């Protein structure tokens, strides 16, 4: 578990559901992930699968001895719903779709470069939800240093997490350092570079450790105190991504650190138009 800045604990590996749009497939993937041992499930309003995620959670809880309190469920407010009142409404909609009494962590999905005032109103709404005890933690996604500095300078509550694109080709060291200094946990989306794993050097590290390239990359995240958010709907991959009970030596870590080329697979948060 990682300890968030508000004292809440969060599982060190999350299960992502981006692009899991087939309802039955998504529901089954969530259930299998929970049966495998994942306790941190991540979705978002824009994914269009909160209902399927909720059904997968309900099915698992019904057939296990695990309680709801042992799970850490995360969703996000989408850009078109940003603003104070619209965010409060969006939270209620997500809660209903998930079929839950509360959400563990609620995130702003993207800052809005053309209307940051609306993003700050969204953060104010998240603070309201948190203070009312309706959500256990609040955080952000895709925020750069200047976004985080504004929140730190103008609001009462520090985000517990910043979920950003992060992988061996985009290591975001300066942003990670800033987050660490301000007790904001860094969470990585696309930690496996959206499946671009055909790299000879990483294959050698994987062979040395008798693991897959995906497992090696996820372990690199963990040993750098980053929370990875792998996603898959394939049962064998879901299980493989959770089997991280090994340690990379310094040589392996240094090698993966050397692969950084500041290469984004997704958009730059300062340039988005959606």
TrEMBL record:
Which SUPFAM superfamilies does the record match to this protein?
NAD(P)-linked oxidoreductase
- Give every NADP-dependent oxidoreductase domain span: 13-260
What InterPro entries does this protein map onto? Answer: AKR, Aldo/ket_reductase_CS, NAD(P)_OxRdtase_dom_sf, NADP_OxRdtase_dom
Please indicate if the UniProt record lists Disulfide bond as a keyword.
no
Q: Which residues form a coiled coil?
A: none
What are the record keywords, sorted?
NADP, Oxidoreductase
What is the annotated signal peptide range for this record? none
Give the domain of life. Bacteria
Does DNA damage count among this protein's keywords? no
Q: Which family does it belong to?
A: Belongs to the aldo/keto reductase family.
- Which protein is depicted? Aldo/keto reductase
